[in-house]
Amino acid sequence: MMKKALITGATGFIGVNLIRRLLLEGWHVHIIIRPNTSMAILGNICEQVTVFTHDGSALNMLNIMTEVKPDIVFHLASLFLAAHQTKDIKPLITNNLLLGTQLLDAMAKNDVQYIVNTGTSWQHFNNDNYTPVNLYAATKNAFEMILRFYTSSTSIKAITLKLFDTYGANDPRAKLFSLLQKASKNVQPLAMSPGEQLIDIVYIDDVVDAFVTAADRLLKREANSFEEFSVTSGRPIKLKDLVEIYIQITGEILPLIWGARTYRDREVMVPWNTGQSLPGWHAKVTFENGIKLIQRIEDGGL
Ligand SMILES: NC(=O)c1ccc[n+]([C@@H]2O[C@H](COP(=O)([O-])OP(=O)(O)OC[C@H]3O[C@@H](n4cnc5c(N)ncnc54)[C@H](OP(=O)(O)O)[C@@H]3O)[C@@H](O)[C@H]2O)c1
To answer: Which pLDDT belongs to residue 180?
Structure first.
């Protein structure tokens, strides 16, 4: 029997890579998008998934869940903002709390038991149990409290994977590597912080592997009702050194000016390092190999 997955955040960088992997493994994939979501990133896998457009209401979510009745839900949808402005409060709450709550309620009403949720290492500023770095991370914490309510009052079982930085080929997000790739094509110098912060960065295939491992743990009934794990590279590295390795491997000439911008307010200098690891999973792709893989994929060699 084909296993059925329902995925939110399917058009995000991690979501699209997760879909590819699930399709390869023979899953029947259903995705929830918004009315204005562009499906361009999905390319030719569009035809292999069943798409539901959520109108934002709890009733519509309930109808989607009733129709799909998935074996498992992967909840990746989120609005990420490093710093928020007043106008961002509503979208942060709507995307990071309301959507997930509607999802959980619809699961409970349909007896859909398993969910892999996505958290962030930024929920643990200075390694504290409850000190989010910013409002985005605070909404992730708040959602975990809601998740705990559902896992304690219904048959829902959840694993939250707390992610660090992620990277991979064809990443449309304005993350470190896309910025470096852009900088190498520009004559315009890129203003950098002093670069002493440690970065914990995990290659996309390893991240996807963590989602699949977590799903397997839930489906094999090995999980408790509420679990959370850290998806760490296990090898944090100073930003300056990371960029140095990138330059050595790619041979790109980067017009970077270190120290031209100050650290962010509440910059994470040492990433969370006290999280529990996901049983059966560890990051396999070293940073050096990850960069080489990206080059090969983007050059069409893979
Ligand atoms: N560095 C990292 O990658 C990192 C680190 C820590 C945690 N995470 C977490 O990992 C997850 C995936 O990250 P990502 O980088 O792949 O995300 P992304 O590229 O920023 O994409 C976000 C996705 O969420 C969807 N979404 C947002 N609000 C929605 C809503 N109200 N209804 C339906 N869909 C909605 C977006 O849909 P549209 O296309 O419609 O916008 C998009 O598919 C997120 O939960 C993020 O917080 C990522």
So the answer is: 87
